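Hey, can you fold this one?
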Amino acid sequence: MSINGWLVVLVSISLSLLFLCVYTLLGRKQKHRYETKGMMEDFFPSHKRKLALRNFYLRAYVLCLRFPGLHGYTLKIRRRLETIHAYDEYTMRKQTMKIVFLTLGITWSIVVVLAVVTQDIVFMLWVILGALIMNGLLIDLFINRLEDRLLRHFVHYLGDVRHEYQQHRMVDEAIYDAAQAASYEAQMHAERIHDMLTAKNPATKLGRYYDVAPNQYLKAFAGISHLVMEHGDRMIAKGSMYLNAVSKLVQEMNFDLLRREKLNYLLKGLTGVAIAPIFFTVPLENWARTYFPAIQQFYDSKLGIVMKIMVYAVIVVAYVLIRKMLENDEGHYIAKAPGVIWEKKLYGWRPIRALIKKLVPGAHTREHFSLVLLLKQANSRLTLEWLTLRRIVFGTLLFAATVILSFYLHIYSSYQLLHTPYSSSLLFGAMNGEDMEKAQQITDFDRKVIEAVKQEKEHSRDMIVHKIGELAYSPMDTVALNIAASRIGDKFETLEQEYFKWWELLLAIAVGVVGYSVPIWVLQFQRRLRAMDMQNEVDQFHAIILILSEFERMSVEQILEWMERFAIIFRPSLQSCLLHYDSGATASLEQLKEDSPFVPFVRIVERLLNAVEKIPIKEAFDDLELEQEYYKEKKKEHHERVISQKVSWGNMIGFAPMYVLVFLYLVLPLLYMSVMQMDDFVNQIQKV
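Sure. Predicted structure:
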């Protein structure tokens, strides 16, 4: 049976097992029924279907946890959801299984369709790799949709909080009453905030909520509500201080939602476009081989293999860069430590640690300072030692891969020269069965002659002619003998050149140097992305400072704590400032200016310095309120410029693999073979 036949059987078996599993889960008697189910089933059939579907998700969740492969995958999605929503256990399991079924179903369908279409094992490996990448993209897509939905619903909820607070002027009651009409996601967080405010130790509960809150806006709302509960509300020029703070928070949330929607609309599907060429390399090659038979010589040559590797390399690089651009905001610049940090484990070996310590730049050198600053600016989880280890590993791997590839290409080229049927076909048209058989006979004969010549000490043309005469199936005339001798002589000379050359070693060293620099380039790219959004974060600092400056007992240290809680890009430097604040406020703020030399941020720090030494906080930031319209227009202009830059970068990087695939893997081979064919035609015309 062919590969396609086995694949069809495998797909049929898989679908049958899936159907039996679903039938078993739905057909099993329900052991646990809810009290509210009985009466509603009779009058509301749609509720009955929803309840059956919910029970299916719950049973499927338990079933998935029993399988080793699905166990980790299911828990991974659950952990992502836990950082966004305060679901109850049943809803958490339901949402988890929805995403599991959608992502695995779409990925499995793509793999099955491409597996049935093609029979290339190497291509299937790339398809599986692309499917794994696409699976991660689908998870991010569904999770990000939930994040955006939570923000939209919470904006509506804050509008209800304003209405309820205007009625009875009690923060906890307004939060509780507004939660009753809110959506499920917003209601769960609102109830948590209400429980925190009404607890015996609200400050402790607030700290715990900060650890689990999905974004900085919910943290800010919880913190502001706690401050008003503790110190009371008062009337300011624009009305209630609490309502004014909620209005500013809603304004920031709406601005963030607008920015996300624009980026999602303009960069939608960009990562899929970047990895799509993985699924089209082999189909494109098969199409070209079918309609342009002469191009087979290019695809089977060393240059063709190198071009294919370049296409895959561009796809990988574009995917990595696009992922760096499209990671969602709250986790955008926060270092995420994976379960296993391979640099840490590798650095734990004593010989490697001793080697790395010798290679790390000295503590007082310029290179040491620049690398440490780059790690901070990129907000990387790596230490300087781990970064050096990663650079060495990348450089060594690329050097070894280039050397191995060079040896493989020489071996592959020699094999192709000795075993591929000899062909001098034109650009259009293919050899029929009889021509193919003759070409194979010529190739087999040439191989016998070459092997016989290799055993002799002399490798001259006369020796080749002599061996042709000995091994020929039938006597050959002078013309046929000269043609065969020229053909075999050219093959023999080509085989003699198939060895590892000195320039290939230099090329491998150059590729290794590139690999050694790749981690630095990635960090620099992350730093460029950070620089685009620094002004946006400073604008958010302005909004939160305007809110906090209205509280009479607010201190500079408390403002720094709120800024650290609200920050993403400047969080490491703010954390360092807070750690050293007790030892000297002025010195820690001066160090904060040096750690984050972004001019608008430095201006905020200078005003905080004035508030520490000379004037109240409200007077230090009074111009923010006076020039609010100017800052709003400036923020809008910066927002549009950043989006334009990201869209430009994203389109250039995202479509690069497709352009490279078409040019390097189709246009360039056709041009190359056309030139080669034209050269053959000219030579034949000159001989006439």
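The radius of gyration is 34 Å. Let me know if you want another pass with a different chain boundary.
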